[in-house]
Description:
This protein is of the alpha/beta class. Helices cover 36% and strands 11% of the residues.
Amino acid sequence: MMLSAGVHTGTKNSDDSMVEYIWRRRNDGIHILNIGKTWEKLMLAARIIVSIENPADVIAISARPYGMRAVLKFAHYTGANSIAGRFTPGTFTNQITKQYREPRLLVVTDPRTDSQAVRESSYVNIPVIALCDSDSPLHFVDCAIPCNNKGKLSIGLMYWLLSREVLRLRGNISRDMDWDVPVDLFFHRDMEELKKADEEQQAKVEEAAIAAPAYEEAPVALTEDVIEDVPAADMPPAYTEEAAAPVEASGWAPAPEGDAEQW
Length: 263
């Protein structure tokens, strides 16, 4: 699963602090990350997150668009908080701001893109867990998870694996059974792609409706057997001259003229 999502694919550049996580370099210059160390650091990060008593004290941050949906889903399933989008400077240091927070742990998608949050965490002694690529700086990063942090499939899969391991360590789900949450929920979805998929599905439905043959129901002819089955109480009365004749009311007579003047 990690290989199919491209978790092991790095970049052409490499940072000195990430050399120990790089397995080798391809002929085209792309660095290949060590999947074994990625899994070990992922398990370590899950244990660090579980050690926080209150899950709301953990904040997951992603300024990269591909990681926004993954961060929101991670916060939803683990009970943590999330900051998707632009990070407001002073969130961890300026107590006057309305968005001031005091987390105990920080989970970052990219230490280069989220450098402001990582820098402020160093001012207030907040440990940082970061998804780091081959060229990511590790300044003020306490636990680095080597992986591809630029692909939407890789980011979504890493947050899905991290969420699943956290829930397993907490005892919410069993290791003997698969997690019922699909990994697709953590992947970034482009609005244009969703609209295009909806249009294609609608077109298929219309084509199927046109190609389907139209069946007309033949009229049901009433036979004597059908008429005999109808109960007599539901049958309409037969039309006869006696039934059509007006019924004279017995005991009724017009009022005399003298009585009308009294009124």
